[in-house]
């Protein structure tokens, strides 16, 4: 079904893409069943922690330049705002000035919950406008706002005609979707609905790159093939978002991040999406540049770049391969990025003893098999016997890592590398995924793994001073997925 960017909100990933949060088995089983959309989410009858769609919405929207955010929620939903002090660091590595984080909470309390929160939302939007003079205001909804049924659309319509700037509702209520990444889609939907303008011209050298905040790994490479990246969404300006419709094509640096935004741009504005796995690993980077060249008529320039880059990094990669060959790795990260990391470490001749993804989308918004990153990983690098889907449950991680004892744990998110470290496993947190992309990305990952392996003693020393809080029953439990069963079978 075509994506409708006019309607107020996008359907959650749970319904749209059949996202699951609990699975364990072979990667090929998950992929085969996903292709028929036949994966049944195991029921996890005990969970230690969770996250929410609003978190993923924050990641994309808090750092939009010239925008203000009104979070229509109790103050607690706003607590992660403190981590955005990293805006300085993530802008510095990109070589640009940090955007101002301009966020206001409506602080929904008991009175608003009983009598409705529209009045305080209107006041907060006005306050955000007066205080920050933004080019757009994004309103994040929340569980409380969703449950009491506040009419956010009426506030949006009124404020837009009064203030004359886009007012963008983002429906990212935590209770609506068990899949956090639904928050990414909610932001893209809001931006496409309210900020992106109809194209007045085509910019044949402009390429939308949907990416996270962090280093710019693209501008210098793109310059060599006469292309300009439009890096979206975090750290971009409202004006940059408005012209997404004029670009020659769209690339998502992670399918889990950009599946909806890229597909919606293609379907609504005719901006083609690059339909190939993202540039993680040398072979996949070559392939990515070749497909990009086909879409933008730059084959000759791209072939030159591929040749030069391969020649440049070949001696480094070969040196790292000699050290890393046969080392046992465990990969634990978001859905598609785990598939990319698996491809990268296998290119180094490492053995992948297991992979866990935080969630799994059974399909993508385009349904194109080339964007099935799990399928591509299996096709290019082989199956993974110990493959699981688990949304950051430390008690499960503890069991998996203790049993498999990999030489290296490669993760992306906060806290997961900590579990490996506490177990004495050299662990790295590959937070800025841009740094791991393209040719230098492979070099960077190899160097980081070698550094971690060389710090083996440090990890061992930490583990000697850690006592996990689990009972002897859980420590001696054989099955890490003991709680991933139908409740009635327990
Ligand atoms: S939106 Fe809901 S799930 Fe998310 S932080 Fe607020 S209360 Fe928690």
Automatic annotation (TrEMBL):
UniProt-listed Enzyme Commission number(s): 1.18.6.1
UniProt-recorded Gene Ontology molecular function terms: nitrogenase activity
Origin: domain of life: Bacteria
Record-linked InterPro entries: Nase/OxRdtase_comp1, NifE-like
SUPFAM superfamilies: Helical backbone' metal receptor
Keywords: Oxidoreductase
Major enzyme class: oxidoreductase
Segments forming domain Nitrogenase/oxidoreductase component: 52-453
PANTHER family: NITROGENASE IRON-MOLYBDENUM COFACTOR BIOSYNTHESIS PROTEIN NIFE
Protein name: Nitrogenase molybdenum-iron protein alpha chain
